[in-house]
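Researcher: We're teaching a course module on how sequence relates to structure. For the next exercise, students receive a sequence and then see the predicted structure as tokens, so they can try to spot secondary structure elements on their own. Here is the exercise chain.
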Amino acid sequence: MTDLIDWTARDLAAAIRRRQISSREVVSAFLDRIDAVDERVGAIPVRVPRSRVLADADRADQAAAAGEQLGPLHGLPIAVKDLMDVAGLPTTHGSLPYADAPAAATDSLLAERLRAAGVIFVGKTNTPEHGLGTLTFNEIFGPTRSPWNLEMNAGGSSGGAAAAVAARMLPLADGSDSGGSLRYPAAFCNVLGLRPSPGRVPSGRRGDAWSPHGVLGPIARNAGDAGLLLAAISGRDDRAPLSLDQDPSSFLEIDAGTLEGVRVAWAPTAGGLPVEPEVLGVLEQLRGQLTGAGAIVEEIDAALFADTDECWQIVEMLGFYEFGREDVARHRDRLGPDLVRNVQEGAALTAAEINRGLGLRTAIFRRTVSLLCDYDLLATAATPLVSVPAGTRWPREVAGVSFDRYFLWQRLACRITTTAHPALSLPAGFSADGFPVGVQLVGRHRGELELLRHAAAIEALTECHLRRPSL
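Model: And here is the predicted structure for the students to work with:
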């Protein structure tokens, strides 16, 4: 039943629940696929032994046969981003000092939610060192390659997750995002990556648990599957002070809404950032499709994005200081220079600079709220180019503009992060060379359900998500 790897996650979960297929059959199909292609892709470098995975799948089938209450992801295989602890598996953070990390004794909050939802853990997905940047490459496992072209990078930092979902090694996967780490790899791999509103998915992060900056979210092949995973990992947790006390079951069924009359604020360059012409060309085609379907698409000026770069850099560097200062103190010679520089920059921030960054974030949030009173969606390019060679740490130039720091090319995502609004990357089309191109859609604050419904409507219009890489 190798075709099971092409089923949607929702169809697989429903069939397992009805006992039309077994978890063992589903898990075996995906394990066979991992064995067949991941040596070339490099998406799931940490693996659970097959015998253990199949034993877990058999227990899932026994629970279904016994009529037990089943979680929404019951019997589905998943691999967790290698920044989050899963009991029994090491967490390397893609960083040399953790290359020989022992197996975690307990689950992270995210893994707790996934386990309660009934998943079968099969491994950990690859990430750059401590999730730094929007390409996946580290000194332990090397790069994660795009399933669309193995010479190219899958994006990051949730690159292993996006590549595994695109290559049919997993039905869905988790990721995290502070500067595009769900959205960039999704665009490169022709899948959907959703950065939810802060608090939608509770986090057990240490340090400043009140920050809305970094969030957890789903990667999936379509909006409905993203909603399924979001339903499983959302909801209140008293350890997460921002977590939302709202029933996540509404995400279990994502119905495609109509695009007739939907108002779209169109800002493909997010206020004047460099974007390659081939990306803009694909987005212009999408704009025509949206208009043809009855959407009202209007260009907006750059005022929305004022001060977003300064805000993001202050908050991001402060976060690196918070979690990275101890590693830099102990292992500086074994860490990448970008990580060390970020920690040093965070340490040098003054109280006045931190105060300014936090104040700017509030102003940006309120500007975005005001904009989305008049529009249903804000749309930008998801990435500024279509591909980057596999071993590249970051592209040094886009559309004739040179960069001297890794995060400058990812500002299409960073600028949206500062709004604290939900955003997703959705397949929008393909370049002349066959590379996926994504569109970034931003919805109203805590409006993930509406955002996913709009995404489902666009999927139905373009059908770009139905194309799969040949490998």
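Model: If you want an answer key for the exercise: The longest helix spans residues 308-331. The CA atoms of residues 208 and 322 lie 8 Å apart.
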